[in-house]
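Posting this for the archive.
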Amino acid sequence: MTLQIWRKQAYYALWMTVIFVTSLTGQAVAASTLPGPGVSWERQFSNGIKIFEVFETDQGYTLIGTKNKYQTYLARTDLDGNIEWEKLLQLKTSNNSQVIITSADYTEDGGYLLGGTVPGHDSFYYIARTDEAGGVIWEKEEFVRDYVEFNEIRETEDGGAVYSYNNGESLGYIVKLNAVGKREWMNEQWMTRYDPHVSIETIRQTEDGGYLAGVFRSGSYLIWQLNAMGQEVRHNFYGDGIGWFVPLSNGGYAIINYSRLSKQANLSVHYPSGHGNWSKDLGINGTARSIELTAEGSYLIGLSNAVIQCDEQGNIQWLRPVSLLNKALPTKDGGVIYITSYENIVKL
């Protein structure tokens, strides 16, 4: 990095901090809490590599992404971000069509769940489970009429998988597979005359073995609750536009999304009983990218332009301005790791 570039970045970070501090309307945030933890290390990727997932391992971190769009990129680093292992996979369907991976999970046995699609109209989505060396254990493909978009895949407690995909703009599906890739159940969300666009973006398994899904429906955000057999329990609408959630104890969940009324990012907590629910504007105008719980019970929030940590009542503890954030995750040492521009990994 040249001195000129470093100065520009330092000036930008200072300028963004000033803007963010002055924009925290209604928040009593001490200046000393900004901009949060310092950088431990940073790694930049190039040569066509795009990183969209990072997970913490016992020895460091594992990274998942693509290279030159069609190759699946897997890597493992030590605790300081040094690459120790990397592998490229050429995943194809049975008719030899190349697959673009768009979602992935790191499994309990150290392997990977990979999900993606073959681009084009009337095409396939594809899923593979691999071992820790990237060797394919099983794979599955489905032909879908219209365009297909693969959104999310997550390992389940029984060693299976749950995933979501879109069929065009009018249908969204959640599918549960067993440990060897056989379908157990399927459920769907569909458009209405008022909600012509449906997309099931996130899925999380809950304490009771059921599932919560975050759904974009036109300009609204929906939490869809299913039981362990995939049957709907309830659904509720929350706020506007893009949102993300994290499950809480006792069937609750926290949501980060955008309030059109206040034009701010909004953090809210919801329980089935309605007791203990609250909602708080964060005083920041940014698009929601992620939300996770820290070991201490705080909320780690990723916005397009900031990483924020809030306490259990939604009060901002620290805020770090960033640019083009993709997601942020808490780490075991009390720090944070995040992705920007699908090319940079930063550890705080």
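Residues 1-33 have pLDDT under 50 and may be disordered. The first helix runs from residue 3 to 22.
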